[in-house]
Amino acid sequence: MFLLAIGVLISSFVCLLLFPFLLWQYWKKHKELQTIQGKLAYQSQIYGKKLEELTKELLALKEVERRLREALNIKTVGDRKKKERVAQGGEGGFENVLEEEALEDLIAEVRLRHQAFKELERRFAQKLDRLRHTPSLWPVKGEVSSGYGWRKSPFGDERMEFHTGIDIVAKAGTPIRSPADGRVVKVWYDRALGLTIRIRHGYGIETLYGHLSKVLVREGEEVKRGQVIGLVGNTGNRSTGPHLHYEVRVGGRPVNPLHYLPD
Predict the structure, then answer these.
(1) Domains and CATH numbers, the chain
(2) pTM of full prediction above 0.70
(3) H or E element at residue 125
(4) DSSP assignment string, 150-192
């Protein structure tokens, strides 16, 4: 009995000595877990804010992309299929469900939109270039005295002839402007049209200007939309007075210039 009592006493003493140590170990682990929990909560909050910001940015990008595609008449490509992660819990949404994988998916989606914008930028530049090189200005201000198509000869006989352009009446010396960007490919004196300029605008479009009194550009010169290229005159044996003979040719064939003029 005595030995048993001694054993119990020793065991109690050992437990008494170990208890503070074990308690300290527990407290230490508890603090470490609290620290880890705090870091995770902070990191989760950061992810949540970033996720929310990227989501708003993505929605804005999608809206701008939609408007650009609508303006450029480009079909919308289908969105990349992805797994949706819905925030659970009460208020806070993004602050309660903050998965790193969801954030990475959203970043990838934003990058995808960035690539889409690059493609839209390229397409927009192409369309803008085509617009700059498509005739869309009156080359001279004045009244159209003779339209495009079949007409009676203006020289007194009853003969019918096909007029390949339009005649715009204006005072001699009135500035003539290029209706689009292009390059002067030929300047010459034509027996019927007198001093004549031909401009190649690209995309298969050319314009021609006849009966000029003066040419203000050279062959090979690049011209801009609205740039003065010459002056109205009365040159050539097919002119009945000061005016501009104006032609638009597509694929080498004359078309109605009125289709390339504002109302």
Answers:
(1) 2-132 (no CATH), 143-260 (2.70.70.10)
(2) no
(3) helix 100-132
(4) EEE-TTSS--EEEE-SEEEE--TT-EEE-SS-EEEEEEEEETT
